[in-house]
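Every protein is a chain of amino acids, and every chain bends into a shape of its own. The fold becomes a row of whole numbers, each drawn from a learned catalogue of backbone shapes. The protein below has been through that process, and both of its lines are reproduced in full.
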Amino acid sequence: MAKIILSINAGSSSVKISVYSAEQNCTPHQLAETQISGLTAPPPQLDYARGGETIYKSKVVDSEISSQDDAFKELLDTLINDEQLPEIKSKSDIAIATHRIVHGGDYETHTKITDATYHHLEELNDLAPLHNTKSLEIVRSCVNLLPETTNVAHFDTQFHATLPPHIFTYPIDPVIAKSNRLRKYGFHGISYAFVLRAAAEKLGKKVEETNIIALHLGSGASACAIKQGKSWDTSMGLTPLAGLPGATRSGSVDPSLVFHYASDVGKLSPGSTKDLHISRAEEILNKEAGWRALTGTTNFGAIAGEEEDEQKKMAFDLFVDRICGFVGSYYVSLKGQVDALVFAGGIGEKSSRLRKEVTTQAACLGFEVDDELNNKGPADTVTDVSKEGSKHKTLVCLTDEQFEMARGCAEDPELW
């Protein structure tokens, strides 16, 4: 019997819900997709598509929306009140709500959310104060508004549970590290799980035999070395701050830098609440850095399109340099046994210039793109943009975190 699954993805400035009909061990079928964006740049706007048909595009939302939780409630009402979506006539029709939770600590797989699970995830808020809090607010709303629905947490960290100890360990006092859970966790794992499966299919290989260097490049950006179908190394660490810079994140910097940046970095930010404890240091490096600090914009498309603007050109070159640093490092870590370099995420999918510059710099490793194919961009879930005769493939993948979460639920016998 088919069940209705909501895949809920709360971002820093948006909330997206994809609706699927699924049967056990079968590929989920998407019925609708809706999102509210612009939460940090009002007015919020609603997008809604059903069965491939656009119902609303950038519709300004009249009701007051000041948080991800408010956005979720508005989206839920949009779905239930849509007479052309008969699969959801009432809240009781929603069998499963699966939530993207950024930090899952030591969870190695998705899990049902019980009272005990919820309280354990609350304890992880200190590891990801900027990320988990908003998702847990929506979980709380689901529990209250959808009492008959099973809630499931999918974690960005779970894909990286296979990192070997010599990679996930920080060179600090091991007793303190263990008691405070200080280690590399890695993020964007739901995306990487999708990218791995899709790339393996495109390459005609079994997942467990696939070696790729994957790049999830968006307002948050990371790299991942995947060895024999498992995460081997990744650029993000204890939190999503480490590694590549992003729209407002610094990425990796000298750990002492923040103490020279301002004198009050150890104090709590004025933006802290009873549920959100964030220091000025975290606020500076997560919210006041990255493209915004360097160029005044968080729109990477504007940065990539302005070759005459010296500051934007420098920011673009900086990003290429940091990406190539990880590509080279992971190529060596994988001992050159690499099937493909895979670009994903909004920037990875859309910026042909970035793909060209990265592969030009990494041409010594055997990555080259065909200019015509690269400029056309993705034509399918996975598009091969490699130059004919290049040593390794270069692929572009349209990643789909909501689908990956729904697929995980469909394959979980405990949910059926």
User: Anything to note?
Assistant: Residues 310-333 form the longest helix (24 residues).
